[in-house]
Design a protein that fits this description.
Strand content: 5-15%
Distance between the termini: 21 Å
Radius of gyration: 25 Å
CATH topology of the largest domain: Rossmann fold
Oligomer: single chain
Structural class: alpha/beta
Number of strands: 13
Length: 403
């Protein structure tokens, strides 16, 4: 797990993280810490492993998603349902800095892994708990996946076209938002530990992470009784900002909602009259006539292919772009120049592109130190670090406690 020769160690080098979650929320948080140097030991069920190993598109028996979600981690195949497996987990927690779990509330306690007990054994331990509704409250025991959290957090009510079914973003946004809030919590707790010498429990609810990103949704209702509604590709109350179909059938995303930007946009599309109209000089005035503005922009875009639309607007310094597909991303020179298209070599010698590292630190950047592990690839090494002998490991494996 050491940094490659000639490259600096990550800012989290030396941090020991025990990951006990599965699928998305907990593992994404652990992946982010691992990218920046943390030694992450991931516990997986011995027979099946993390279900994510089989989600979506599979190459050589393993999901390609796995190479993103579990890079830089070590895999310990350990059965947490068995007392001896739980005892090993407690040993690991006693030597860890951070424990991450995203099971339903009560699961850890049922396995004899109550965070409060773990903190007694290791007062410096930081425990990140991610769940659908949090560890307290009347909904704590409900199963909560990202789609439910996005609904309860207010996001799904706003997605889609007016009068039609809510749509999802196409990725598990609720999980990822919760993961990132969890990472923030871990870093805050580490900072607090520097002063106090003590760890703590971080309680992240998926719906709260979504709700935290809903901007003025609640204040608008509280102050004015206004319930924001879905608006398709537009941004209600801010104009113009929308998607406009070009002559080639591709959609251009154009944001001309700054006062000076709006004037440049109107001039670029041949509508100097609108650029000079004092009633459209500020956002409040433009919102009142947003349909008229969108019609003007849409009519202009419909006469030109997207390359020309973006060239004209780029020259006019108007924020614009297109909705990238995976093919667009893979071919884009800016993605490449920023190191966001990392190539990993698979076991069969083939290469595959995976996302690069975010955020970008100038002195201690994220690094790819190792590919995502095979199930149980590091079981022996991790157990030996605990002082468990080869004979004991063999006995544990014979009983199905480890693999």
């Amino acid at each position: 797990m050491s940094a490659a020769a000639g490259t600096p160690a990550g800012p989290l080098a030396g941090l020991k993280v025990l990951e006990m979650g599965q699928l998305i929320a907990g593992p994404f948080a652990a992946k982010t810490l691992a990218d920046f140097g943390a030694d992450v030991v991931k516990i997986e069920p011995p027979k099946t492993g993390d279900p994510l190993r089989q989600w979506r598109m599979v190459k050589d028996g393993t999901s390609v998603w796995w190479q993103v979600q579990s890079r830089n981690k070590r895999s310990l195949a350990l059965d947490l349902r068995q007392p001896d497996g739980q005892a090993i987990a407690r040993q690991l927690a006693a030597e860890s800095d951070v424990l991450i779990e995203n099971f339903r509330p009560g699961a850890m306690e049922g396995w004899g892994l109550d965070p409060q007990d773990l903190l007694k054994a290791n007062p410096k331990l930081i425990v990140l708990r991610i769940s659908g509704y949090g560890q307290t409250g009347p909904y704590r025991d409900r199963p909560g996946f990202a789609l439910v959290a996005e609904g309860m957090g207010g996001l799904r009510h706003l997605t889609g076209e007016p009068g039609r079914a809510p749509v999802r973003t196409g990725v598990s946004l609720g999980d990822t938002l919760a993961s990132l809030h969890g990472v923030i919590g871990v870093l805050l707790a580490l900072q607090a530990r520097h002063a106090s010498g003590r760890g703590q429990v971080i309680d992240v609810a998926l719906y709260e992470a979504v709700f935290n990103c809903m901007e003025s949704l609640l204040p608008e209702y509280s102050a004015f009784g206004a319930v924001r509604q879905p608006a398709g590709s537009a941004l209600p109350g801010i104009a113009p900002s929308n998607a406009y179909r070009c002559a080639c059938g591709t959609w251009a995303l154009i944001a001309g909602n700054g006062d000076s930007i709006f004037k440049r946009l109107m001039a670029a599309i041949g509508r100097p009259d609108m650029a000079a109209d004092p009633a459209l000089a500020d956002n409040a005035g433009r919102v009142k006539r947003v349909a008229e503005i969108d019609e003007a922009i849409g009519a202009w875009a419909a006469r030109h292919p997207i390359a020309q639309v973006l060239d004209v607007l780029g020259t006019a310094e108007v924020p614009s772009g297109k909705a990238y597909s995976a093919a667009d991303i893979a071919a884009d020179p800016h993605y490449a120049a920023r190191g966001m298209l990392q190539q990993v070599t698979m076991a069969d010698g083939s290469t595959m592109a995976v996302p690069g590292f975010v955020p970008k630190l100038s002195a201690t950047p994220g690094q790819h130190r190792r590919n995502a592990p095979a199930l149980g690839a590091d079981t022996d090494a991790v157990l030996r670090e605990l002082g468990i002998s080869g004979e004991q490991i063999a006995a544990l494996r014979e009983r199905g406690i480890v693999a």
